[in-house]
Fold:
Amino acid sequence: MFVFSSEQFQRLLQIHPEWRADRLLDLGAGDGGVTKVMAAHFSEVYVTEVSLPMKWNLQRRNYKVLGIDEWHQTGFKYDVISCLNLLDRCDNPLLLLRNIQWSLVPDTGRLILAVVLPFQPYVEVGGKWQRPKEHLRMKGKLWEDQVTELSTEVFWRLGFEVEAVTRLPYLCEGDMYKDYYVLDDAVFVLKVRGKVMNLLNETSDINYCE
Structure:
């Protein structure tokens, strides 16, 4: 899987090549290829992955593999969380985004989120594809319309503010018909809105904001 280069990652976060932070979490890291692009900027790199062979590969790269129900309950927070092409293959995307909010370092923490548009959510259960339990409401059919919808409606209502967004080709593994596929990714840099961050600091039981 290829999403962005080191230079594109730096431009998205508006950081210089020497910038360093404490912790990165890459959700659904796959074989760790994209993780490696980001890892040079962090003292500790944490990952999640459901595929056992991929987990072994991530461990060989010396990344710290966390359980898919464990990463938001570690007792510490992350400077950057990446969620790349996972939102449309997640059974509970709303819960995922809420757990990410809780897990980011206050004020300075950032979420890098990539999603293929047009948005077509499906999850694989027992070798079959089905609709996820939670549904992200999406208006518009064009790529540009859905980027606007995500930015001004979906993410905002969930407590995030968009700092940057770009369009990048997503090269993903193919099948028996094609060696690989090139899809249109929207890559967002998100931060938790100030009002929501204050609520997160005050209580452990909040609903999504207005």
